Amino acid sequence: MLRCAIQCALRRNLPRIQYGHRFYSESEVGDILTNRFRVTVLGATGQVGQPLSLMLKQSPLIHELALYDVEGTLGVAADISQVDTGCKVCSFTGPEELDAALKGSKIVLITASGTRTECGVSEEENFLENAKIVQELSVAIHKSCPMVNLLLET
């Protein structure tokens, strides 16, 4: 739908395109039309992050997939890189690499979580731990790429 709106606006030689409440610049329009999206998965080594990363790697709309987690992303990136697609996979580990993982992304997915409920932790403690993680990630996202499309998996 967005692609159709962009193509219609380009036929009218509009300098920028409005879709919904958002305006898209010329460079963003070029990225959309040429399928050049960079997507970052925060929490890429988790039970949801790994299969999600594999599915995203297979999408023809994504040219670069950035995988971030506090540890273990190098192995996940190596496994996912074996899938023969045009999508490049980058691995980022630890808080010091979070800004680099987010830089230039059009879409950020948060799948990160702390403890799991089956480990004997109460739901309230689990919620508070996850809220802290999401808050820290959200601050970093706001600094690195404030106009990103953000998806949160809970």
What is the CATH first-level class name of the largest domain? Alpha Beta
> Residue share in helices?
40-55%
CATH topology description of the largest domain: Rossmann fold
Radius of gyration: 17 Å
Overall morphology: globular
> How confident is the prediction overall: mean pLDDT?
83
Summarize the structure in short.
It is built from six helices and seven strands.
Structure description:
With 154 residues, this protein is α/β, with parallel strands linked by helices. It has 2 domains: 1-34, no CATH class; 36-152, NAD(P)-binding Rossmann-like Domain (Rossmann fold, 3-Layer(aba) Sandwich), CATH 3.40.50. Helix content is 41%, strand content 22%. The chain contains 6 helices and 7 strands. The strands form 2 sheets. Strands 5-4-3-6-7 form a 5-stranded parallel β-sheet, sandwiched between helices. It has a two-stranded antiparallel ribbon with strand order 1-2. It is globular. The mean pLDDT is 83. Pfam families: Ldh_1_N.
